[in-house]
Specification:
The structure holds three protein chains of three kinds. In chain A, helix 3 links the parallel strand 3 and strand 4. Chain A is built from four helices and five strands, in the order E-H-E-H-E-H-E-H-E. Helix content of chain A is 27%, strand content 19%. Chain A has a single domain, classed as DsrEFH-like (Hypothetical Protein Ychn, Chain: A, 3-Layer(aba) Sandwich), CATH 3.40.1260.10. In chain B, 30% of the residues lie in helices and 23% in strands. The longest helix of chain B has 10 residues. Chain B starts with a strand and ends with a strand. A five-stranded parallel sheet of chain C has the order 4-3-2-1-5, sandwiched between helices. Chain C is 35% helix and 20% strand. Chain C is of the alpha/beta class. Classes of the chains: A alpha/beta, B alpha/beta, C alpha/beta. Chains in contact: A-B, A-C, B-C.
Chain lengths: 124, 102, 130
C-alpha cells in the first residue's frame, strides 16, 4: 500500500553574500526545488546572507545572473515564509524597510523557534 | 525537541560560532568538528563576549579531529565531552534536526 | 533511522568529504540506512573518476565509490553543479561532443529534486561542507 508523503518542513539558512561565491545561488536553487516538490519551505537570511537583499543589484555588469531578480520569484513558487535576521541587517547598515523582497525581519529568538519547528535544516 | 549544531571553523577567523551561539537553545548540543575543535578552549570566552550563556548546552568534540590537531583531551574544560563518529551518529538520531554551520 | 547525506565540498580541498565518509561508515556500522548521498555544489568533485590520489594519500574518490557500491547506496551527483565543473557522464559527453566522460560509478547525474525526494524519505538529513 502506498500513501502520499506528508509535506515536511524544510528550513533553509542562507548565510552568504551573492556574486562573491556561488553559495547564495546554490542555496536558492535548493529552496526552489523544495517548493516545486510541495514541501513547506522556510527561508532565513542571516549573516552575510542579508546582503542578497540589497536593492538595485546589476549582476549583468559582471556577467552574472542577477540574484536580486532571482529572489523575486519566491512568491511565484508560493514561498511565503521568508525571514531576515535583524541583527545581521543592523551589523551591515541595512534598513529593515529597504529590502529587495518582502520578508519578516525578526530577532534571534524567532529564528531559534523556526529551526526548532523544522523537520530538516539546510545550510550551504 | 532539541537541535544539534555542528561547527567546523575556529572563532578567530570565522563567525560561525558566534552565529550558532546566538541561536542555540537550552537542551541543544553543540558538536565541534574539524577545525571547529579549536574552539574547545575558547568557547566560554566567546559566549561571554556575546553575553550568551552556555548553561543548558551540551558541548561535544569529535575526538579524532581534536587529536589530529595536537589538542589534548585532558586539557578540555570539564563540561566538554569527547565523542567518536559513532557518538556523532547517535547525536544526529537524538536531535530532531541538525544545523551544520560551515 | 534513515539518513540522507549531502556533501557540498570537494575531496582533499577541505576535510568535509572525509568527515562525511566517516559519518556514513559509522551510520552503516550502527545499522542505520543511508537513503541517498547527494553530491552538490563543489561536492560533485567527489564523483570525478579522473581523480588520482598520490600513493601515500587516502583515495577519497575511490573510497566513496567503494562505500556506495558495497552497501548499494543510491548516489546522485547534481547535474547542473557537475556539468559546469566538468564532471560528465557518457550521455552528456556525447551530447556536448566532449572528449571523454568521468562520472565515477555508482553515482548518477540528476537534479535537486532527488535531494528533496531523499530528504522526504529520511528521518535525518545531514550536510557537510567547507
Amino acid at each position: 500500500m502506498t500513501s502520499t508523503p506528508v509535506p515536511r518542513q524544510l528550513t533553509f539558512i542562507s548565510r552568504h553574500s551573492p556574486y562573491g561565491s556561488a553559495r547564495a545561488r546554490a542555496m536558492l536553487d535548493m529552496v526552489l526545488a523544495a517548493a516545486v516538490f510541495d514541501q513547506k519551505v522556510t527561508l532565513i537570511f542571516m549573516d552575510d546572507g542579508v546582503l542578497q537583499l540589497h536593492k538595485h543589484q546589476a549582476g549583468a555588469v559582471i556577467g552574472a545572473k542577477d540574484l536580486g531578480a532571482a529572489l523575486g520569484v519566491l512568491p511565484l513558487y508560493d514561498i511565503q515564509q521568508v525571514y531576515v535576521d535583524a541583527q545581521s541587517l543592523q551589523a551591515r547598515g541595512m534598513r529593515h524597510d529597504d529590502l529587495a523582497i518582502a520578508a519578516e525581519v525578526c530577532d534571534s529568538a524567532r529564528i531559534t523557534r523556526l529551526i526548532q519547528e523544522a523537520d530538516a535544516v539546510f545550510t550551504l | 525537541m532539541t537541535t544539534l549544531h555542528t561547527i567546523n571553523k575556529p572563532s578567530w577567523s570565522s563567525d560561525l560560532l558566534r552565529s550558532c551561539l546566538r541561536l542555540a537553545a537550552p537542551g541543544d548540543t553543540l558538536l565541534l568538528i574539524e577545525d571547529g575543535t579549536y574552539n574547545a578552549g575558547t568557547l566560554s570566552t566567546v559566549a561571554a563576549q556575546l553575553s550568551v550563556t552556555l548553561e543548558g548546552l551540551h558541548v561535544c568534540v569529535l575526538r579524532d579531529d581534536l587529536l589530529a590537531r595536537g589538542l589534548a583531551e585532558t586539557e578540555l574544560p570539564d563540561h566538554i565531552t569527547t565523542i567518536d563518529y559513532t557518538g556523532f551518529v547517535e547525536l544526529v538520531c537524538q536531535h530532531r534536526q541538525s544545523v551544520h554551520w560551515f | 533511522m534513515k539518513f540522507t547525506i549531502v556533501l557540498h565540498a570537494a575531496p582533499y580541498t577541505s576535510q568535509a568529504s572525509l568527515s562525511a565518509l566517516r559519518f556514513a561508515q559509522a551510520a552503516l556500522a550502527a545499522g542505520h540506512e543511508i537513503v541517498r548521498v547527494f553530491f552538490y555544489y563543489d561536492g560533485v568533485h567527489n564523483s570525478n573518476e579522473f581523480s588520482v590520489a598520490p600513493q601515500d594519500e587516502f583515495d577519497l574518490v575511490k573510497a566513496w565509490s567503494s562505500l556506495l557500491q558495497t552497501h548499494g547506496i543510491d548516489a546522485v551527483t547534481c547535474v547542473s553543479s557537475a556539468m559546469k565543473r566538468g564532471i560528465v557522464d557518457e550521455r552528456e559527453a556525447r551530447r556536448h561532443e566532449l572528449r571523454g566522460h568521468n562520472l565515477q560509478a555508482p553515482s548518477v547525474l540528476s537534479g535537486l529534486g532527488q535531494l528533496v525526494d531523499a530528504s522526504m524519505a529520511s528521518d535525518r538529513t545531514i550536510s557537510f561542507g567547507a
